[in-house]
Write a structure and sequence with these properties.
The complex is a heterodimer of chains A (375) and B (346). Chain A has 375 residues and is of the alpha/beta class. Chain A has twelve helices and twelve strands. The longest helix of chain A is centred in the C-terminal third of the chain and has 22 residues. Chain B is globular. Classes of the chains: A alpha/beta (375), B alpha/beta (346). The interface between A and B is medium-sized, with 24 and 25 residues.
């Protein structure tokens, strides 16, 4: 990785060579998949084969897959598209969802929808009993992510899906961080958002895996290329890259991740592992370092060539206290002292060792900066 | 040395950072998020994105790391709260001075040092010569006044690479270095009051009821004002007095009494003072207990001769429009000796 120890796969993963090769093949061809001539048919064939390939890898039907410009569009289409097509006006949304879900929900709240937020426990797990009580026939949509993008906690999505089915309420789930990490079986969930670049595919390509029978209002109107639900020229090369990345050989990073957690706990004994210690994404480790501003840690590790994330920052680049940790009941200090480490297909032991080597001094300095105050 | 270069998004700080890089320092660019509402309001909504963007692009061009440091809470607690309290007490504060004292060369410097940096560099037009703080060479841009509150330790950990230059040179250098902010206009307003309407800002924070404008000589009520807070001694505009003075002279604000919500006006002669007392004295080096100095009471005011005796400043000549709350900065020729806050005038 060019001298950089990249521990931020949850932000984006390096492109897999298989994806690059597939895209290069397609980029050298002319053809709009919607065109009726030979060139168009050739592009269409690439798109459909990719669609079938992706569907097979996540237990979906090819017809369920609506390609989008990425995870954010897929979440927006799932939330707004289903809500707008419904005669009901109540939404149940997880409190620790990604902003690509929370913000469309807030936008819907501004258009007359009643949005109720589903609490999570201290490990970030959705309160299923609360959901069971809150569910009723007047609910247009439930949105619960498959696994949390910050702390990595895997949600009891089967239970959630069962409850939703019992009330005939559609369920949308953001599985952007799950794709490629767990064996994803979307068959019980109405609407699932996935994204290519988290698995080593290109940025700007994603999909909503949407039950063919679910009514949905389009967000982008136009040529109706994707099932009349999503308009815009279909990106054959990007989609080919998505399929190639997903089909590339799986890399099991769990042992490496476990070693990362062990080494962090050894080098910084008071570090707190956030999220569910067992039911978590195999590539995710998320810690709070009491007394250490997360942004200071990030900067110090960056200077040592170790790339990590504080979770979320605003557009200006100011780290914000994580709404996920706050929803889990953490105070602002703990929420502001956290770092996410995430691994992927090209991660190596040297990346983890570099982190462990750089961490103690970074923690010590950040702690001094956190305790600063000139009288 | 490992240096934090404060990047505001303007041309001066960008060129200052460039010079630090050129001098061989290990430079990290830092933009300070200070005014909470404008950066972090509404969940993740962010404003003044243009300045952050410009600062980030300058760092890109210089090939240095760039981060945003959030000091909004500290800025609120020290600079903003003090700004409001001073106006409420009828004084005229300088928030830029207070920001330098409490944020840029205190909170930021402390954080930088804790994180392993040696110094903070800014685009202020001032010089450090043999460890002593001096005026910048460009008389139109000299910013030593707003640094008059630094103590010796703060000066020792500061770098001002622009002090030897004129503004026009700095702009030219920015263009030569490919910095896109080369033509960006200078900022003149208080950063947290971008529309320049200080009294409007104060009214929105502190409220305010209308009150009388009283002739300081006759005691006659000449008009009404929308709230005494925010009016400053020496001010002439914004009074809207219909009735002219009998002697035809312009009338200035000569006193502001916030408790009685009264603004007093009078002829210019009443603005003249022969001395004042200060508190909150700060020294860039050895304290001056007694001696002849020069004193400057505004960022771009003229220095005048003064005799300093403890906290008392006597002016052999006279000064006009001296308002309590203003910072008096003491100089020995080009050297900044220290400062104090004006508390009462004579």
């Amino acid at each position: 990785m060019g001298g950089v120890h990249y521990l931020d796969y949850a932000a984006t993963a390096p492109l897999r060579p298989e994806a690059l090769a597939a895209m290069q093949r397609q980029w050298s061809q002319v053809g709009n998949p919607s065109s009726l001539h030979t060139a168009g048919r050739a592009a269409r064939r690439v798109v459909e084969e990719s669609r079938e390939q992706i569907a097979a890898l996540i237990a979906a039907k090819p017809a369920d897959i609506v390609f989008t410009s990425g995870g954010t569009e897929a979440d927006n289409l799932g939330l707004k598209g289903i809500a707008m097509a419904s005669s009901k006006r109540r939404l149940l949304v997880g409190a620790a969802e990604h902003h690509a879900v929370l913000d469309p929900a807030a936008a819907l709240a501004g258009q007359g929808f009643q949005v109720d937020y589903l609490p999570v426990d201290a490990l970030g797990r959705i309160d299923v009993d609360y959901l069971a009580d809150a569910l009723s026939d007047d609910v247009a949509l439930v949105a619960v992510m498959w696994a949390n993008n910050e702390v990595g906690t895997i949600q009891p999505i089967d239970e959630v899906a069962r409850l939703c089915r019992r009330h005939h309420v559609p369920l949308h789930s953001d599985a952007v961080q799950v794709l490629g990490q767990l064996d994803l079986d979307v068959s019980g969930v109405t609407s699932v958002a996935i994204s290519a670049h988290k698995v080593g595919g290109p940025v700007g390509v994603g999909a909503l895996v949407l039950d063919r029978n679910q009514a949905v209002s389009p967000l982008l109107h136009g040529g109706g290329q994707e099932r009349d639900v999503r308009s815009g020229t279909v990106d054959a090369a990007g989609i080919a890259g998505f399929a190639a990345a997903l089909a590339a050989p799986k890399v099991d990073v769990r042992p490496l991740r476990d070693d990362l957690i062990r080494q962090v706990m050894v080098t910084v004994p008071d570090a707190v592992l956030n999220g569910d210690p067992v039911e978590r994404l195999p590539n995710n480790a998320h810690f709070s370092f009491p007394g250490c501003p997360g942004d200071a840690l990030l900067m110090l590790l960056d200077a040592q060539g170790v790339a990590v994330s504080t979770g979320s920052a605003c557009t200006a680049g100011i780290p914000q206290p994580s709404h996920v940790l706050m929803a889990m009941g953490a105070d602002e200090d703990l929420a502001g002292s956290s770092l996410r480490f995430s691994l992927g297909w090209a991660s190596s032991q040297s990346d983890v060792d570099a982190l462990a080597a750089a961490l103690p001094q970074a923690v010590e300095r950040a702690r001094r900066a956190g305790g600063r105050r000139r009288s | 040395m490992r240096v934090v270069a404060a990047l505001s998004g303007g041309v001066d700080s960008a060129v200052a950072a460039a010079r630090l890089v050129a001098a061989g320092h290990e430079v990290t660019g830092v933009h300070l998020a200070l005014a909470e509402k404008r950066y972090a309001g509404g969940g993740r909504g962010c404003c003044t994105l243009e300045d952050v963007h410009d600062a980030r692009r300058a760092a890109d061009v210089l090939g240095i790391p760039f981060y945003v440091w959030d000091f909004a809470a500290e800025f609120q607690e020290t600079v903003l709260d003090d700004f409001l309290a001073e106006y409420q007490a009828g004084r005229t504060p300088n928030p830029c001075v207070s920001c330098n004292q409490h944020i840029k060369f205190a909170a930021v410097l402390d954080r930088a040092q804790a994180l392993g940096f040696d110094a903070v560099g800014t685009g202020h037009y001032a010089r450090i010569i043999d460890g002593q703080l001096h005026r910048g060479v460009d008389p139109l841009k000299d910013q030593s006044y707003v640094l008059g509150v630094l103590d010796a330790a703060q000066v020792a950990a500061s770098m001002f690479p622009l002090g030897d230059s004129h503004k026009s040179q700095v702009r030219q250098e920015a263009a030569d270095r490919g910095l896109l902010v080369a033509d960006k206009p200078d900022s003149h307003d208080i950063c947290f009051i971008p529309d320049g309407d200080t009294r409007g800002f104060l009214r929105s924070r502190l409220g305010g009821q209308d009150g009388p404008i009283v002739d300081a000589e006759s005691g006659e009520t000449l008009g009404r004002h929308p709230g005494a807070v925010g009016f400053t001694i020496g001010q002439r505009r914004g009074l809207n007095l219909r009735q002219p003075a009998e002697d035809g002279q312009p009338r200035y604000i000569v006193d502001v009494d916030v408790p009685s919500n009264t603004v007093f006006v009078g002829p210019p002669v009443r603005l003249r003072v022969t001395g004042f007392d200060v508190d909150r004295q700060r020294w860039t080096g050895q304290p001056v207990v007694c001696g002849d100095v020069e004193v400057q009471i505004r960022a771009h005011g003229e220095p005048v001769a003064a005799h300093l005796d403890g906290v008392t400043v006597n002016l052999p000549g006279q000064l006009s429009g001296v308002a309590p709350g203003q910072i008096a900065v003491f100089y020995d020729d080009t050297r900044v000796l220290g400062s104090g806050r004006i508390v009462r005038t004579v």
